[in-house]
Each structure stands twice: as structure tokens, then as C-alpha cells.
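Folds abound. Consider this:
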Amino acid sequence: MGQSPQAPSSSSGGLEPNVAALLGYLFWPLAIVWLVVDPYKQDRFIRFHSFQALGMVVAMFALWIGFIVLSIILGVAGLGAVAGILWLLFGLAFFVLWILLMVKAYQKQMWKLPVLGNFCEQQANKV
């Protein structure tokens, strides 16, 4: 989890880059819009956060499927309470991470997730 250089201070798209990046996390379909609509798709900071927001949604969905399978296994084994606690922890961790990413985007920081961050940065650098 590292930090890259600060984001540019303005964009010609009407929204400041940090606000556009925050909105990409808050409403992930906007992250797709930012990647295809000029001038947002030209802004490296917005592209990075858009890719990271989408990567986080995909990772969360994959983990959600894994937790469903794990819950079924634990339920069959009579450990339904453990499954419930794991769901609670998973939801809380995702929520905290989601808030942290929005705060970092608003603070104009390119804060990278451990596994996805480098990939997202590589994609953001491609124009």
C-alpha cells in the first residue's frame, strides 16, 4: 500500500478530479463512464481510481461467492454461527475499505490497494 504522486488540481470536465474519483467509488457505474467519456478518460488520476473502484467491485463479488460456499460448508458442519460472524467481519472490512478509498481519492492521493493497485496504476498509465 503505497502512495504515488499527488493528483492534478483541476480537470476540464467540470468536476475536480478528486470529486470525480470519489464518485467513481461511491457509484461504481460512474467509474465506467469516467473511463469512456472525454475529458475524464484523459485524466490519469481519475483513470487510476476508476480502475481501482471497478477492481474492488470485482474482487468483492468474487469474495462474496467464496463466502457463500464457505457458509454452506460451515452450515452443513453445524457451524452456522461462525459463518454469520465471518459475514459480519467481511461486510465491515469491505465498508471500511470503501470509505478509506473514497477519503483518499478526495484528498487527491493515489492510494493503492495491495493486490489491485499496481495493476490499476499500469492501466491508468495507458492512454
